[in-house]
């Protein structure tokens, strides 16, 4: 279980980095903010679980919270995937460089979240 917590912790930072460098319209960031907040909460829960594991305590409550949070993250992930698909269509008009950047960002996001959801 501890290895899974460490691996998961390694996913949160990349997910933050994926969202940070790409500006979007103010009305368009709700889902991204929701996901970022959920990942931050996951990180805090994992830190508490690691502390409890270090002390030999039970982490049942933390695992339950993570599972509930995972459901929210999964739903947000599906909505963001659709948003990225729609943006890809709009970005094509901006040229190949913009299209390639969007593709790389989308793939990085998708891989990071799929790895998180597989845990």
List how many beta strands DSSP finds: 0
Q: Determine the structural class based on helices, strands and strand pairing.
A: mainly alpha
Q: In total, how many domains does the architecture comprise?
A: 1
> How many H/I helices?
4
List SSEs in N-to-C order: HHHH
Major sheet characteristics? none
Please identify the oligomeric state: single chain
Residue share in β-strands: under 5%
Which of globular, elongated, flat, extended, rod-shaped describes the shape? elongated
What would you report as the Rg, rounded to the nearest angstrom?
16 Å
Mean pLDDT: 83
Unreliable runs: 21-27
| Amino- and carboxy-terminal Cα gap | 10 Å
Helix content: over 70%
Could you describe the 3D structure shown?
With about 120 residues, this protein is an all-alpha fold. The protein has one domain. Helices cover about 80% and strands about 0% of the residues. The chain contains 4 helices and no strands. The chain has helices at about 1-20, 30-55, 60-90, 95-119. Helix 1 (about 1-20) runs antiparallel to helix 2 (about 30-55) and helix 3 (about 60-90) packs antiparallel against helix 4 (about 95-119). The longest helix has about 30 residues, at about 60-90. The chain starts with a helix and ends with a helix. Residues about 20-25 have low confidence and may be disordered.
Notable traits:
mainly alpha; elongated; 119 residues
Produce the secondary structure layout:
Elements: H1 2-19, H2 30-54, H3 60-91, H4 96-118
Give the gist of this structure:
The chain has helices at 2-19, 30-54, 60-91, 96-118. By secondary structure, the chain is mainly α. It has one domain (2-118).
